[in-house]
Specification:
Elements: H1 2-25, H2 33-53, H3 56-59, H4 66-89, H5 96-129, E1 134-139, H6 143-154, E2 159-165, E3 175-176, E4 179-183, H7 188-194, E5 199-202, H8 209-222, E6 227-231, H9 234-240, E7 246-248, H10 251-254, H11 264-271, E8 275-279, H12 284-294, E9 300-305, H13 308-321, E10 328-333, H14 339-348, E11 353-356, H15 363-368, H16 370-390, E12 395-401, H17 410-424, E13 432-438, E14 440-442, H18 448-457, E15 462-464, E16 470-471, E17 473-475, H19 476-489, E18 494-498, E19 504-505, H20 506-516, E20 526-528, E21 547-553, E22 556-559, H21 566-576, H22 581-594
Parallel strand pairs: 1-2, 1-5, 2-4, 5-6, 8-9, 8-11, 9-10, 11-12, 12-13, 13-18, 14-17, 15-20
Antiparallel strand pairs: 3-4, 6-7, 16-19, 18-22, 21-22
Helix pairs in contact: 1-2, 1-5, 2-4, 4-5, 7-8, 11-19, 12-19, 14-16, 16-17, 17-21, 17-22
């Protein structure tokens, strides 16, 4: 119905343009009534055809941007030119002055009607909703800031950009979307005090953690009720074809981590057009690997996992994002402990690359269930790795953990055994096996971040096992990208250790999360409760005996691999399954440390 109304309004605008032209120059030229009616008819018909082709009527409902105005102008130009051609061809005497002036009026009236429509709509919506306009201060007057301001202006929202902050001195005093750059980021406090601001939005793609901390602290110091958020990466928005999206500033943003620079060509050679299998595809790391891999346009992505709901969710997400069907996403419910099924799938699907993320990873739970950890982490990994080798898969990348270094718990010991099996399966001319080891990822299921969020939401306290405890942290996207990069540069039989930066005190992490919530430590208690079974006070990324000191890529180091026959490991694991649970843990940890490649328990330089 709206499209029909727009068509009628546009035709009326064209008629009005011709009538106004006639009033202006009618006394200077001779124009007959039949001639005018013919002009109205031909111009209107051609315009409607051309405008429909350019989707003018479906484009414009609430806002007329330059793209829409250009489409209208092109449609009018074609209509008026075609009108002249038709009249001349049929021997009619035409007035070029009349045609030119009427075109100019039409080019003014048609877009103008849209603008009037928008003004009336805005006034009507304001009267109906009667919502006060929320003033937004945008930090970043670059491409992202412009994209955000444009979105706010064209959408029917109760927001208005009142100004920008940017550290580029050349932009100070300049205007964007009608609003000025008021100062630099260091001026934030003064601007918040001087202006009535309801929301502060960061629109800078690569802002460091210290700057995020400064912004959050400053906003909350001035007014705890102020909303502070950020715009998601503009490259993702453009690829998705959507408007600006905002999300909370989270603990990941406060980590002072440099952006991961990847060798895109090498990764593309590994993934583009290939069949990729990701085990544990519904988990935190597995699902992010699915997202990152898909950017390189593989032929097929096999999302293998044991939990049907998590596999369903990531499959629907990816199918929604890649609607054109250029990538075949295949959800596969399977248990990696089912050896026969894993071998069958690997053969049937002709897999090229495997990213093995499936594992039991919860440290305290595995202390109570050591045999299940062995079945899944040791034998499950063995099944996937040996199936890959038998079916000549090009590359196999296993994801490991810092808890496999000098392990003090069941989970870390089983991951160490899995590392040894995978790296020692490598043979020249066959599947390139590699292990990528890193520490904790922020926000993963079962990690401290979701736990702390729940505790803060419930009013506290935040519980920490030991105030001196430290952990290495990396964001999920960063870890996933480095895993993919490791697979691309792998030559086979290697242990890659990711540079996690400096260890973070869990106590400091808790304090930062309280700040992000707009609260203070006086409002949320932080309580020490003692270490849990199998926990370490400090984690290590690499043992002394594994450290080669060789950096093979930005943030990727090469570790020294211990040589051992995988069959010996499997035989020992089989023997463990025959023992009582209380004996399994001690023998498992002793065995893993015996083959840890370490000289002593001192932490290496990298850790």
């Amino acid at each position: 119905m709206k499209q029909v109304v727009l068509m009628v309004v546009d035709v009326c605008s064209i008629i009005c343009a011709n009538i106004l032209t006639l009033l202006f120059i009618g006394s200077y030229i001779s124009v007959g009534g039949k001639y005018v009616i013919l002009i109205f008819t031909v111009e209107s018909i051609i315009y409607l055809i051309m405008a429909s082709f350019l989707k003018v009527f479906s484009q414009i409902n609430r806002f007329t941007g330059m793209k829409s105005v250009n489409a209208i102008t092109v449609s009018l130009l074609v209509a008026f030119c075609m009108n002249e051609v038709i009249l001349v061809t049929n021997g009619a005497i035409v007035s070029y002055r009349f045609s030119f002036l009427s075109f100019l009026f039409a080019a003014l009236f048609v877009p103008g009607s849209r603008y009037i429509w928008r003004v009336i709509s805005d006034i009507s919506n304001h009267n109906i909703n009667d919502e006060p306009v929320k003033m937004v201060l945008v930090i970043g007057a670059g491409r992202s800031g412009d994209f955000l301001a444009t979105t706010i202006k064209k959408e029917e929202t109760a927001f208005k950009v009142m100004g920008f902050l940017d550290d580029d001195s050349n932009k100070l005093g300049m205007s964007m979307e009608g609003e000025k750059v008021l100062g630099k980021i260091k001026d934030l406090e003064n601007i918040l005090i001087a202006y009535d601001i309801d929301q502060v939005t960061v629109a800078i793609s690569e802002l460091d953690g210290s700057s995020y901390s400064y912004i959050v602290d400053t906003v909350h110091a001035v007014n705890k009720e102020l909303i502070v958020n950020r715009m998601i990466n503009i490259e993702d928005l453009i690829s998705e074809g959507s408007n600006a999206k905002l999300e909370e500033i989270n603990i990941e943003d406060l980590l002072n981590r440099d952006e991961v620079k990847l060798d895109m060509n090498k990764i593309a050679d590994t993934i583009t057009g290939k069949v990729i299998m990701i085990t544990g595809a519904g988990g935190s790391i597995g699902s992010e690997i699915v997202r990152q891999v898909s950017r390189f346009k593989p032929k097929q992505v096999i999302l293998l996992g044991h939990g049907e709901n998590s596999i369903y969710l990531i499959t629907k997400e990816m199918q929604g994002k890649y609607r054109n069907g250029e990538i075949d996403f295949r959800p596969t419910i399977a248990d990696i402990r089912d050896r026969e099924l894993i071998f069958s799938l690997m053969k049937q699907l002709s897999v090229d690359v495997v990213y093995h993320a499936a594992a039991h990873k919860h440290v305290p739970l595995m202390e109570y269930n050591p045999k299940e950890a062995i079945k899944n982490n040791v034998f499950g990994t063995t099944n996937v790795a040996e199936a890959a080798k038998e079916n000549n898969v090009d590359r196999f990348v296993m994801i490991s953990t810092d808890k496999a270094v000098n392990p003090t718990n069941v989970m870390g010991s089983t991951k160490r055994m899995a590392e040894l099996i995978v790296t020692n399966l490598n043979e020249e001319g066959h599947t390139k096996f590699t292990v990528t080891r890193f520490g904790n990822v922020l926000g993963s299921r079962g990690s401290v971040v979701p736990l702390f969020k729940r505790q803060i939401a419930s009013g506290g306290p935040i519980t920490i096992t030991d105030f001196k405890m430290t952990r290495f942290f990396m964001t999920i996207p960063e870890a996933s990208r480095l895993v993919i990069q490791s697979g691309a540069i792998a030559e086979g039989g290697q242990l890659f250790v990711l540079d996690m930066g400096k260890p973070v005190k869990i106590f400091d992490l808790a304090k930062n999360m309280i700040r992000l919530s707009g609260l203070s430590e006086s409002e949320i208690e932080i309580k020490e409760i003692g270490m849990r079974p199998g926990e370490k006070l400090y984690e290590e990324l690499i043992s002394d005996g594994e450290s080669s000191g060789e950096k093979v890529f930005d943030k990727i180091y090469l570790g020294i691999v211990s040589k051992i026959n995988p069959e010996d490991i499997k035989q020992f694991a089989d023997e463990l399954l025959m023992l009582p649970d209380d004996e399994v843990e001690v023998k498992l940890i002793t065995y893993a440390n015996k083959h840890n490649g370490s000289i002593n328990n001192k932490k290496s330089e990298l850790s």
